[in-house]
Amino acid sequence: MTTRHYRWIKGFALAALVPLFAACSSEEDSLVQGGGAQPVQIDITRATTDGNDWTWENGDQLKLYVTSYGSDAPTEETLTYNGSTSTWNRFNVTLPATVEACYPATATLTSFTIPTNQSAGIAEADYMTTASSQQLNGTNLSLALVHRLCKVAVTITDWSDYGNTMPAISDFKITSYPNVTRSEDSVIGTGDVTDVIAYYTEGSTYTAIIAPSSNGFTLKLKVNGMDMTATSNQEVTSGNAYSFNLTVTDKELTLTPASTNVLPGWDDETDLN
Prior knowledge:
This protein is mostly beta strands and 273 residues long. 0% of the residues lie in helices and 48% in strands. The chain contains no helices and 22 strands.
């Protein structure tokens, strides 16, 4: 496994057996290629490289692009997770086929609009795609989804100007391009830079998923009701997670890089829920 973070998607088809060839010694020999459409059940596991699994939520959706046998163009299939049965809905396909995928279902393989309000969680902003199309022959299939955006986490570590009590922090935002376009491994932010409302977690950490940018980003927040900003000129690139420490004084904010991790640097996925 490389240092990239992957979510593994495993799909398997329920292929029909051919009675005349019941003596076939392998599953591959028993597949009817180019025959009638066959139901495919996808099993999708979200896994982190630090060993912590986190489950899909009821109603989660992702999009598949499936090119069936004999077809020149893919069809779109939106899969929805049923939390009661812990399964995804099936779809029919004529084998062999090729499959590509993206998450969330509001995205396409080549574009995504980043949610600007991530205060309830960053899962729906976590744009991912497969790196390339994969063959589906009716046997087990694994699709690796690659993180295409940037995760920025800012922790307030010093507020000594205010004594032992942290000042009131509100309206915490991180700037980002609102859209991205993708071509293979190239992901480019587009549109006028806007504000993304960050997600707060215990420990005074604010997190948002933003578009890649060679110009860095700006923090905007209120400290005891007063508007304050801090800018990072550090380039943020596709597939990386960045941690920063923030010092808050009564006059200014100071933003200091803490770490940069090539994915799987998103090693704590609890804030995606």
